[in-house]
Amino acid sequence: MASTSQPLRGKRACKKIFWAVFPHACFILSLVIYAFLGALMFSHIEGNRKVNLSEEYRKFLQNLWYISRNLSDNMTENEEIFKEKIHELLNAAERDWFVNPKDIWTFFGSLFFCCTVFTTVGYGNTYPVTRIGKYLCMVYALFGIPLMFLVLTDMGDILATVLSKSYNEFRKLQSKILASKLCSRSTCNKGDELKSRAQSKVVINEPLTIMEVLKIQPGIKRKPVKYRNAEIFEMLIARESEHTKPARNKSIERWSSCPELARGKTMSRVIENFDKIGKQLEKFDVPIVLMVLVIFVYISCAAAILPNWETRLDFQEAFYFCFITLTTIGFGDTQLEHPKFFLFFSLYIIIGMEIVFIAFKLGQDRLIGLYKKVISFCGEKKMPSKKVYPK
């Protein structure tokens, strides 16, 4: 029986782990599928569009040809012409006149664009041009942004739990180290005495026999026999209930014996896991200085790795780019030469946005607490003092 029960316990444990991880994996998988479908859609629509050279493009070439004819051998005069005319002409030019859409809207380029849409970064260097692409971009963002926020909230619960437990374990370790340093020989001896007393107390609290109960309860002998037997019986029942293990719950046997009921119980547990999303963030409470330090270290690690394939960026520019990305500001002033390599860094972006989201939530709670203190302080100052009238 023991050999057959162990595989069943292992299967039940695996099922519990699977259904506990299922909601988190469901959200992440949905976001990945949504990003891939968007990449296929935009690469097909924007990449296959025809570039129509308008009349503005022909005027641009004509004005550029006139300016080039007026150039002279004097460099100072050419610089003045460039500042006045060519600079103005280039600002009026459109990027579609010089770039092939298929070079921009590849699968990886479209995937990078979709990530910037539902993460609300929006660099601005890649954007839809066709009317259908613009409409689909609005619809895509309308469903993608809530899905991304749901993933952020769900993963934020996991990170908040990990950070809270790590911080609590660090505080416990710190308190133990301080207690060991402050513990002198006298206090340690007192602790040993207390331990010995506790052990002796445990020995006294062991279950007693009927004869031992009668010996330590002399008042029972003076009572009538029926009352004496009833009190002895009640005392034995109380002793037995304290030291015996609780019986197996009948509901568990019912669930295990009936697979349909077990399946319903599993589904209810999965639904409860969905309902618990965002609860850990409300309980999260660590020093905000620690969160700022975590963000600084997290961005510094990426700033040290990113210049390996983005050779135009140094550590400071990469640090600025990562900060602008994780905070979803996305100016677009720093452009990537190899966005497909940065897509493999997408997991870093999602986790980083979650860390920044947790830090913002923590700062928001601290700010609300500060406002409460200020309002209560101002309310106490404005309260009129009670007048004492003579009797």
Q: What share of the residues lie within helices?
A: over 70%
- Main β-sheet description: none
Mean pLDDT, all residues: 76
Beta content comes to under 5%
Question: Can you offer a commentary on this structure?
Answer:
By secondary structure, this protein is an all-alpha fold. Among the domains are: 54-98; 153-177 and 267-381, Helix Hairpins, CATH 1.10.287.70. The chain has 16 helices and no strands. The chain has helices at residues 2-47, 55-69, 75-91, 101-104, 107-118, 131-182, 185-204, 210-216, 225-243, 250-257, 259-275, 279-283, 288-305, 315-326, 339-343, 346-382.
Topology:
Layout: H1 2-47, H2 55-69, H3 75-91, H4 101-104, H5 107-118, H6 131-182, H7 185-204, H8 210-216, H9 225-243, H10 250-257, H11 259-275, H12 279-283, H13 288-305, H14 315-326, H15 339-343, H16 346-382
Helix pairs in contact: 1-5, 1-6, 1-11, 2-3, 6-16, 10-11, 13-14, 13-16
Keywords: Ion channel, Ion transport, Membrane, Potassium, Transmembrane, Transmembrane helix, Transport
Organism: Pluvianellus socialis (Magellanic plover)
Pfam families: Ion_trans_2
Give keywords.
75% helix; 16 helices; 391 residues; mainly alpha
Summarize the structure.
The protein has 391 residues and is mostly helical.
